[in-house]
């Protein structure tokens, strides 16, 4: 009996120790859970802080870029205003199929006219040059091209062959932007992808820098730039209304 009581006491003590171990284990598990929750909270806080910092950084970059674009746009606008030239069409260079307005500001494709075949006149290509030329400095002019499915516009050397079909080349020109099939825009053969269809095109030339740029005036967006050109003689604006329709190309006052 005494041995039984002793064994019972030992079992009771063992049970107490086991219960204590279980409680300690539960406490340890709870501490681990609390630690995990705290770590998760710290991680979430760090994520939130990082997102805020990154968002602020992006906003700062975007604001800086917007300011830079505004500055460049203002600088470009100032340059264009200084380079603005009042262009009129030269009837002595017009292909016989081209009809010019009396004020020399509009041209469209019509019926062939009986005109003298002077050396200045285009015979094989439906083009006409502007009277004004550039051999130094800058020029800028704007042309309305709406309601047309086909046109050509740019600048050409004064020595361009008027009696053969035009073949644009980067080295020798003419440097032109063209529309084909109502939606295919090309710059000397380079196919362009435009977000919108220009209704008015601005043409900018910097003779010394060898640059010819085309702009979508209404969208205030650059369409294309020829750079690194080597100009060695007078350049003239060149206009090709093409034969697909009778809507005119119109030289307009520069937008302010």
UniProtKB/TrEMBL annotation:
<dbReference type="InterPro" id="IPR013320">
    <property type="entry name" value="ConA-like_dom_sf"/>
</dbReference>
<dbReference type="InterPro" id="IPR058030">
    <property type="entry name" value="TRIM8/14/16/25/29/45/65_CC"/>
</dbReference>
<dbReference type="Pfam" id="PF25600">
    <property type="entry name" value="TRIM_CC"/>
</dbReference>
<feature type="region of interest" description="Disordered">
    <location>
        <begin position="1"/>
        <end position="23"/>
    </location>
</feature>
<dbReference type="InterPro" id="IPR003877">
    <property type="entry name" value="SPRY_dom"/>
</dbReference>
<dbReference type="InterPro" id="IPR006574">
    <property type="entry name" value="PRY"/>
</dbReference>
<protein>
    <recommendedName>
        <fullName>B30.2/SPRY domain-containing protein</fullName>
    </recommendedName>
</protein>
<dbReference type="InterPro" id="IPR003879">
    <property type="entry name" value="Butyrophylin_SPRY"/>
</dbReference>
<dbReference type="Pfam" id="PF13765">
    <property type="entry name" value="PRY"/>
</dbReference>
<dbReference type="InterPro" id="IPR043136">
    <property type="entry name" value="B30.2/SPRY_sf"/>
</dbReference>
<dbReference type="InterPro" id="IPR050143">
    <property type="entry name" value="TRIM/RBCC"/>
</dbReference>
<dbReference type="InterPro" id="IPR001870">
    <property type="entry name" value="B30.2/SPRY"/>
</dbReference>
<dbReference type="Pfam" id="PF00622">
    <property type="entry name" value="SPRY"/>
</dbReference>
<feature type="domain" description="B30.2/SPRY">
    <location>
        <begin position="67"/>
        <end position="256"/>
    </location>
</feature>
